[in-house]
From TrEMBL:
Superkingdom of origin organism: Eukaryota
Keywords recorded for this protein, A-Z: Apoplast, Secreted, Signal
Location relative to the cell: Secreted, Extracellular space, Apoplast
GO BP term (any one): phenylpropanoid biosynthetic process
Protein name, entry field: Dirigent protein
SUBUNIT field: Homodimer.
InterPro entries, per database record: Allene_oxi_cyc_Dirigent, Dirigent
Upper classification of the organism: Eukaryota, Viridiplantae, Streptophyta, Embryophyta, Tracheophyta
Signal peptide: 1-26
Described function: Dirigent proteins impart stereoselectivity on the phenoxy radical-coupling reaction, yielding optically active lignans from two molecules of coniferyl alcohol in the biosynthesis of lignans, flavonolignans, and alkaloids and thus plays a central role in plant secondary metabolism.
A cellular component term, taken from the record's GO annotations: apoplast
Family per record: Belongs to the plant dirigent protein family.
Primary localisation category: secreted
Length: 193
């Protein structure tokens, strides 16, 4: 009987030490905690679709896309590999630049492919109208500009698009070879709360 009591006592001591270690370890990571999404105002997730037209204006007196870096002149790539362009492009409701302005696309794109015209896009669609005013959708991905349809990821957002995820499809609506200006239709499929 004494042997069983000593085994139980030893088991109790080991279990107590383990619980104390867990409690101390849990307290040492006080920088993070689990939150209740409902208490943060997050209700049921929904899927929304938006269609906007992105106007990249590189020519004329008021460009919205400015090249800020280029590869050294020793670069012989016909694709512009290495060029970096900052943008603050209008987003409109319809394909004409005179259509209702619904937001801006702010960010950058860069020529990231040596062999074809493939851009890395990193931009925020900043909405300026209605209940979405001040909310943003963050988009990042590869844009093979001469493909009929390009798909890029929605990697986040702010305001009504907090915790956003999804994708966009880009289709060139109009491209002016002379000026370099482009109008691209963006269909946005976004999960948000």
């Amino acid at each position: 009987m004494a042997g069983i009591q000593s085994k139980n006592a030893l088991s109790f001591i080991i279990l107590s030490i383990f619980v104390v270690i867990l409690m101390v370890d849990a307290k040492s990571h006080s920088f993070g905690r689990v939150l209740n999404p409902v208490k943060m105002g997050l209700k049921k997730e929904k899927l929304s679709h938006f269609r906007v037209y992105w106007h990249d204006i590189v020519g004329g007196p008021n460009p919205t896309a400015i090249q800020v870096a280029r590869a050294p002149t020793t670069n012989s790539s016909a694709t512009g590999f290495g060029a970096v362009v900052m943008i603050d492009d209008p987003l409109t409701e319809g394909p004409e630049l005179s259509s209702k302005l619904v937001g801006r696309s702010q960010g950058l794109y860069a020529a990231a492919s040596i062999n074809d015209v493939g851009l890395i896009m990193n931009m925020n669609f900043v909405f300026m109208v209605g209940k979405y005013n001040g909310s943003t959708i963050s988009i990042m991905g590869r844009n093979a500009v001469f493909s009929k349809v390009r798909e890029m990821s929605i990697v986040g957002g702010s305001g009504l698009f907090r915790f956003a995820r999804g994708y966009v499809q880009a289709r060139t609506h109009k491209f002016d070879l002379k000026s370099g200006d482009a109008t691209v239709e963006y269909n946005i499929y976004v999960f948000h709360y």
